[in-house]
Design a protein that fits this description.
globular, 376 residues, Methylamine Dehydrogenase, Chain H, single chain
């Protein structure tokens, strides 16, 4: 058993020549902490609701130009208006998905379980491209290109108009890799890619390396314990990207210089969230911490939501929001970590990192429920 893995999880892996997949399966789970009493509540409400097929893959919700782009297991891809939830378009890929959605506001990209990259324009499939390895990280669509990070850490770039492969980057790495959404993000004219525990800045036109910075040094006595892949999506403020190294650490890297700002050792598997002041995260037991973004110094921690299967967090107004295994949304004070609001969804686990646009918080659940909330 990997040291520090979420209690109640068992680990299985299957090695191939290039890649191994690590997945967690349920076993005897510790009892979730009882829901706390909220003494000084704030106001918030659900403003609209929609639905996609069930979501049992690492969904990323793309937000751009007042639109949420999301997808369901069955290959349905939709664009929804942020303000009203009105469906702007709906497309059908025709196959079950393993990763998505990436979008530049016009084109949307997903990957099927058959390792096929599919790009849509306004709900219409415009091209498909077969990939050499499985993908669980949502493609990135930017600069008239589609960037794809495989579980083997190979990066491919395609022309968004016709699907032509532009370049491929393969770097030496460990045989065992993490089957969980990794780090793939843009910064100005640099493509940021997670390669194990390292963040790499690439030239997006050529696929060449500009800088390479380790967030942490993997620890452990075997390959499983040394897994320390960067987990996405990151939390960005300006040029600083903060992220988690799987079961190892939380830290921040300045993408302008490719330099490490700070790192703190801590367990956990979900992405971090934050704002200009704090970086929020939950560890393997769902102990929540807030660290000062500038230094990594601990501001507060709380065990009020232990073992509740927390999602990645999102900072909204004066609160930080986590979803849980029952679809409950927990709003905690950013300053102290005290619960200030609780809102329900459909009773199923929150399936994607919460996203925010124009003060609207979007939550997607395993059952395919899509819920938009706003503070009052």
């Amino acid at each position: 058993m990997m040291a520090g893995v979420k209690r109640g999880a068992c680990i299985a892996w299957a090695a191939t020549i290039a890649v191994a997949s690590l997945v967690a399966c349920s076993a005897d789970k510790p009892k979730p902490a009882p829901l706390p009493t909220i003494e000084s509540p704030i106001a918030g409400r659900q403003v609209w609701e929609a639905r996609v097929g069930g979501v049992n893959f690492p969904l990323a919700v793309a937000v751009l130009n007042g639109r949420f782009h999301l997808a369901g297991d069955d290959g349905t891809v939709v664009a929804l208006d942020v303000a009203t939830g009105r469906e702007l378009w709906r497309g059908e890929v025709g196959a079950k998905l393993s990763a998505g959605v990436g979008s530049d506001g016009r084109y949307a990209a997903v990957v099927t379980r058959a390792n096929e990259l599919v790009v849509l324009d306004g709900g219409n499939v415009v091209w498909r491209q077969k990939l050499e390895s499985p993908v669980v990280t949502a493609p990135l669509v930017a600069g008239e290109r589609v960037f794809v990070l495989g579980v083997d850490r190979v990066v491919n770039a395609f022309d968004v108009l016709d699907g032509r492969r532009l370049w491929t980057l393969k770097r030496p790495g460990d045989a065992l890799t993490l089957s969980q959404a990794g780090m793939l993000a843009p910064y100005k004219d640099t493509l940021l890619v997670g390669q194990g525990s390292r963040l790499v800045g690439l030239d997006p036109l050529k696929g060449t390396v500009r800088w390479d910075t380790a967030l942490t040094t993997p620890r452990g006595t075997n390959e499983v314990e040394r897994l320390a892949d960067l987990v996405g999506p990151p939390s960005r403020t300006g040029s600083v990207f903060c992220m988690r190294s799987f079961q190892n650490a939380v830290g921040c890297i300045d993408a302008e210089r490719g330099s490490l700002k700070w790192v703190q050792n801590t367990g956990g598997i979900e992405p971090v969230g934050g704002n200009e002041e704090y970086v929020f995260s939950a560890d393997s037991s769902d102990r929540i911490s807030a660290r000062k973004r500038a230094s990594g110094e601990l501001a507060w921690s709380t065990e009020v939501l232990l073992n509740r299967g927390l999602s990645a967090p999102a900072a909204l107004g004066t609160a930080v929001v986590f979803g849980d295994l029952d679809g409950q949304l927990h709003f905690l004070s950013q300053a102290e970590g005290k619960p200030v609001l609780r809102l329900p969804t459909d009773g199923s686990r929150v399936a994607a990192a919460p996203v925010i646009s124009d003060n609207t918080l979007l939550i997607v659940t395993r059952k395919g429920g899509v819920f938009a909330f706003r503070p009052e």
